[in-house]
Specification:
- It is built from 29 helices and 31 strands.
- With about 900 residues, it is α+β, with helices and mostly antiparallel strands.
- A hairpin with a 5-residue loop joins strand 30 and strand 31.
């Protein structure tokens, strides 16, 4: 092309134009991992910028694109189902061809799709568009031809294809607003583009395409099959994505609002004064187990606080009640569930009569697991149609209803169901308003995915007008997480960091899952503190019982303190028989230092570099992970560092049979330094398996050599077991057992209380007696009755639920899967761990072992986007840290591996 304006496109509109693509083609990116919604939205925005760049230029020299109508000629070899899909697409396009011809035209690219658009995969930032090829055959056509071609990229998204399609269209509309007519005509064009891609060499939207393999076209067939027969629904979805009413029947809402207050009551009760109760994730703990809801809990839902049995739930409220929508058995969608209520629940005494709020006609009547269901069709004087939906009805009360039967305003046509006929829940009526969508039918959901709720709430608007109450009276007001973030920044210090690029708000937890403000489920593969799982009911019950009695301290006798001390010392070598209880691991490590100094008479401490022992002043002084950071003052002269015994990237590696001895011999150098400076050794402290150092498993025999040297010099050996103790390692209850040593002091932290503030220090009688020669030791709520009872319960749960064994089995499964990934991806330098204490060392290349810090950050944040939590550690922050609650199950491990596989693919692609 020699048009001068074409050469200006890049400068004026940020669009790259080239003959041979730079970057990576979208189809290749998809082969390495599915496209996030953010990238799909950017594809739409990019296409809009492209169309704007082309729109104002002379069009005489370009040929007009023809509306593609020939796809139905390419049906050979298709089964009946797929032939029907293609036939429907062709018919849909034919119906709209006349309207398409009336749209304004301009120069268009013609094929901005997965074959021509290239992206630059990102690590530190999201993937971005690199540019587009294919400028050798520009056409004249309505601009939505380009958008329809780009929309096929939704087939490669990591969300449902219809949600990805909405993201692309919304991205386009944001840059170059579409008219409502353009939006309504878009889906037929998208359909024909999808069909031409799926037919592998059939006619494309603007010409002939090349044949492709079945695997290459599978995403397009999936898209077509997922949306088959849903033309009206997809069009409604695209209208909502662009801010238009879901259908052209927006007059329905205007009419309902104008007539608010005049509709017949649907129940024999004054709903305007009925209490409104919360069932949301934020304000309710129902169900206690977010994956099981039934029995007494379901039958008694909301019975407290109402005199006449009438109360209202809230419209649009996210709830964890809909346990049967959890897709646990789908390995690709394990964390998905519907949480948002698109109607209003009216809790009533069972058997109450249900009346029609206005004249209507029975559109559908049926029964299911949740009882009877009726849809009434209503028609405005101007012809628009909408439905009212009544669910949880007594099946016997609707047995004589027939489709097409008229129902007058105020007429009783059903009764509210009983718990035994309504899925076991407390008696209530689910009432919904639904806008009619051409070809959709009556399958309106009674719970929707929070990520798709904007569409479904537009299709099923707030029904308050029909109840003669205000919308605000029953509307759920979501937590404003942006405002929450702003307030946090205003009220807290900047160095109180949030995890992940996109912070996440959690309001509930259960076992190894967490739930955000909309009820989205996250797999927690990171937080070790909830040792036996989030919100364990036995811990809740123990805490509640004790708080009803008292909560005091160790100045008074109480059997709970004695019981916990017995439990802990029974798990430890017999020499460790004296306990101190404190409030945290930090406080425990401070006390451990005091014990060492009292027993040894020395002050100096030897400790591995990049260790972490807490956030108190004394703990920070021995934590190189902290004191080596800017503004922390550096190492104190009485702290002497040795290398972490990292035999993967340390100075002594796995090919050295003497590596354990060589690392231990560094203690000799530290002891010489103490002697040279006139100091005196107090002891050696280390995380038994260094965690912030990179999830390190020291070579066998390392601690035995270290402890021998320290004790020979008169020092005390302290094992910080905060992250490795209490069965996390599977084969070992404590980490020091793997090293075949006996510490002089063992430190435990908040995993002992499953997050409740408790820590413990267990030592020998001799050391405790030396410490007792000093002043009284007292920690106000260290070892409180409440804390000790909770800690004892944690130990019981580990035993009763076989969690140490589960840590071994799940850890072995996870490690085996990670080693398979290490075979596939060159960026995986090392897989290490025991039980559920696991690290994945990511490298730029295996030869140099250069740390892949940005890769680790990318993978961690992409997993967060997939609703899986992991962390990263190590001196270079390049090691993925995996240490979930001990309750994690095989399906969760497999899901983590599946998603991690995708993230590693993406990362390798980004590195090139």
């Amino acid at each position: 092309m020699k048009n001068g304006w074409l050469e200006d496109i890049e400068d004026r509109f940020g669009i790259s134009r080239y003959g041979a693509p730079t970057g990576t083609g979208i189809a290749t990116v998809h082969a390495m991992g599915k496209l996030p919604l953010s990238l799909l939205r950017e594809i739409g925005a990019f296409t809009a910028r492209l169309d704007r760049a082309l729109s104002g230029n002379h069009a005489a020299s370009f040929s007009h694109a023809e509306i593609p109508t020939g796809i139905s000629a390419h049906l050979d070899g298709l089964d009946a189902g797929r032939r029907a899909i293609i036939g429907n697409i062709a018919e849909n396009l034919t119906k709209t061809a006349g309207r398409l011809q009336k749209l304004p035209v301009q120069i268009i690219h013609g094929i901005p799709d997965a074959d021509t658009i290239s992206v630059i995969p990102g690590l530190a930032e999201p993937a971005r568009i690199a540019g587009i090829a294919g400028f050798d055959d520009l056409k004249i056509a309505p601009r939505i031809f380009d958008l329809a071609a780009a929309a096929t990229c939704a087939a490669f998204g990591d969300s449902a294809p219809e949600i990805g399609l909405s993201a692309i269209v919304a991205g386009y509309h944001e840059v170059s607003p579409l008219t409502a007519d353009e939006v309504d005509l878009l889906w037929p064009l998208v359909g024909v583009n999808l069909a031409s891609r799926a037919l592998r060499g059939g006619e494309t939207a603007l010409g002939a395409g090349d044949g492709q393999s079945a695997a290459q076209v599978a995403p397009f067939w999936h898209f077509l099959e997922k949306t088959a027969g849903q033309n009206g629904l997809v069009c409604a979805r695209l209208r909502v994505a662009c801010g238009f009413p879901a259908t052209s029947s927006s007059a329905v809402l205007v009419w309902l609002d104008r007539n608010r207050g005049s509709f017949a009551p649907i129940l024999d009760a004054d709903l305007a004064h009925a209490p409104v109760k919360a069932l949301s994730v934020e304000e309710s703990t129902v169900p206690r187990n977010p994956f099981v809801f039934g029995g007494e809990e379901a039958r008694n839902l909301g019975r407290d606080g109402t005199d006449d049995g009438f109360w209202l739930g809230r419209y649009g409220e996210p709830r964890l009640l809909y346990v049967d929508t959890w897709t646990a058995n789908d390995p690709d969608r394990r964390l998905d569930r519907q949480t948002v209520c698109p109607g209003v629940d009216i809790f009533t005494p069972a058997g109450c009569a249900v009346h029609a709020p206005l004249d209507g006609q029975v559109a559908m009547v049926g029964t299911g697991p949740s009882g009877g269901r009726v849809l009434l069709r209503h028609r405005l004087p101007t012809g628009e149609v909408f439905f009212t939906i009544y669910d949880r009805l007594d099946p016997d009360s609707i047995a004589l209803l027939r489709e097409g039967q008229g129902v007058d305003a105020a007429a009783a046509f059903a009764r509210v169901g009983y718990p035994e006929t309504s899925g076991g829940m407390a008696a209530h009526l689910r009432f919904q308003l639904a806008i009619s969508v051409e070809g959709f039918g009556y399958d309106y959901p009674d719970a929707v995915d929070p990520d798709d709720s904007a569409f479904w709430l537009a299709l099923c608007p707030n029904p308050a007008a029909l109840l003669n109450i205000s919308d605000a009276a029953i509307a759920f007001r979501p937590l404003d997480t942006e405002a929450l973030l702003a307030e946090r920044r205003a009220l807290f210090s900047a160095n109180l960091k949030l995890s992940y690029r996109r912070p996440v708000t959690f309001l509930r937890g259960w076992r190894h899952y967490l739930f955000d403000e909309m009820g989205r489920t996250y797999l927690d593969a990171y937080n070790n503190v909830p040792h036996v799982g989030h919100a364990h009911p036995r811990i809740r019950d123990v805490a509640a019982r004790q708080l009803e009695r008292m909560n005091s301290n160790t100045r008074y006798l109480h059997p709970s303190q004695i019981g916990l001390a017995r439990r802990l010392t029974a798990k430890l070598p017999k020499e460790l028989d004296v306990c101190f209880f404190v409030n945290s691991g930090s406080e425990a490590n401070e006390l451990a230092l005091r014990l060492a100094r009292a027993a040894s008479g020395g002050y100096d401490i030897v400790t591995p570099d990049h260790g972490y022992h807490g956030n108190t002043t004394g703990a920070i002084d021995i934590s190189a992970y902290k004191f080596n950071k800017p503004g922390m003052g550096g190492r104190k002269p009485w702290v002497h560092l040795v290398d972490v015994a990292d035999d993967y990237r340390g100075r002594f590696r796995r090919d050295d049979e003497d590596r354990a001895l060589r690392y231990a011999m560094q203690v000799d150098d530290a002891l010489k330094e103490i002697e040279r400076t006139g100091g005196r050794l107090a002891g050696f402290i280390a995380e038994t398996f260094p965690s912030v150092g990179g999830q390190i498993i020291p070579p066998p025999g390392y601690l035995a050599e270290v402890y021998a040297r320290v004790r020979a010099a008169g020092g005390i050996c302290i094992a910080d077991e905060v992250q490795t103790g209490l069965g996390r390692l599977g084969d070992y209850y404590f980490g020091f057992e793997q090293q075949a040593v006996r510490p002089d002091v063992v430190v435990l932290g908040k995993p002992l209380g499953n997050g409740h503030p408790i820590g413990a220090v267990i030592t020998t009688r001799h050391i405790a007696e030396k410490f007792a020669e000093g002043p009284e030791y007292f920690s106000t709520f260290g070892g409180s009755n409440l804390s000790c009872l909770i800690a004892s319960e944690v130990l019981d749960i580990v035993e009763d639920d076989g969690l140490q064994g589960n840590a071994r089995i799940m850890g072995d499964r996870l490690l085996a899967g990670l080693r398979v990934l290490a075979e596939k991806y060159r960026i995986v330098g090392d897989v290490r761990g025991i039980g559920l204490f696991i690290g994945l060392d990511l490298v730029l290349d295996r030869e140099s072992r250069a740390p892949a810090t940005r890769v680790a950050d990318h993978v961690m944040n992409r997993l967060r986007d997939m609703r899986i939590l992991v962390g990263r550690e190590g001196p270079d922050d390049n090691i993925l840290k995996i240490r979930p609650p001990l309750t994690i199950e095989a399906e969760d491990v497999d899901f983590l591996l599946l998603r991690l596989d995708e993230c590693l693919k993406e990362a390798e692609l980004a590195l090139g």
